[in-house]
Amino acid sequence: MTDTTTLDTESGAAFVKEVERLGSRLTRVRDAVGKLIFGQQDVVDETLVTVLAGGHALLIGVPGLAKTRLVETLGVVLGLADKRIQCTPDLMPADILGSEVLEEDADGRRSFRFIEGPVFAQLLMADEINRASPRTQSALLQAMQEHTVSVGGHTYRLPAPFHVLATQNPLEQEGTYPLPEAQLDRFLLQVSVGYPDLDAERTMLLATTGSEDVKPEPVLTAEELIQAQRLLRRIPVGESVVEAILAIVRSGRPDGSDVGSVRRHVAWGPGPRASQALMLAVRARAVLDGRLAPSVDDVLALAHPVLRHRMALNFAARAEGVTLDSVIDQLCAPHR
């Protein structure tokens, strides 16, 4: 007769070992990235959380803060085939997705052949995404949500894993096109990239202007990353964490919110995808920190990058100088 209790215990112990091994590997990933990216630990962690959770990230920061270097470094360290798109107003959807060309063989028969665009990568960097026209931006919608593209009546599956890491400059707004809400919602996290502190900038200055050029080294493979993403979804989440996620997300919606500033200042709030994003992200953050289960602190730490691009202030809020970060702080306050 089978002892199910023993089997459950053994299964649980094996699962714990798997998570601990993954945590150890992720520590090596952070160390490898840290050799090239200085003073941006929160940015690195939030970007790793995004990739581990199987999502896409929008990195917003002024020029010169190593956003491009971070994406290139992650591609090598995580063992992903990466490609880059430099977004400009004249960029066309076919420049991203690919196109069909008419070919003639030796017998004179003509047929169409599909030439893949740069979107056929495991890690796609869309540099200055808001410089692309709305038509071109929308070419990424299907790819980001369904991991497929449709060209000429045919559907093509993208490589696995597939992640988009897009960058955006918050200063130069001439010649830019704001991302539509539907596309913003496709990004799991919006990562704010700030200036490094004095010590980090000193270290970066000395490390990057010398004769030695440090190169990133691979730590994971694409298949190992896929396995990690699958393992992540099996990590248990406590009821208190689930309730905190639901309370924060639902109270960010103007209709029915019990937070006065939300009813007064928020034009539209986060949808259910925000709850899903938080659930996945808190698991990833816990494993990245070497823990076996997420806590409410993880929810509070990730509320801003998950919600700030899924909410919009009304005119009255902007006139009064209210910021989205201050509104999200109020949503989180009861759970601190």
TrEMBL record:
Residues 56-189 form the ATPase AAA-3 domain. One of its GO terms (molecular function) is ATP binding. Gene3D superfamilies: Magnesium chelatase subunit I, C-Terminal domain (1.10.8.80), P-loop containing nucleotide triphosphate hydrolases (3.40.50.300). Residues 264-330 form the ChlI/MoxR AAA lid domain. PANTHER family: MAGNESIUM-CHELATASE SUBUNIT CHLD, MOXR FAMILY PROTEIN. This is ATPase.
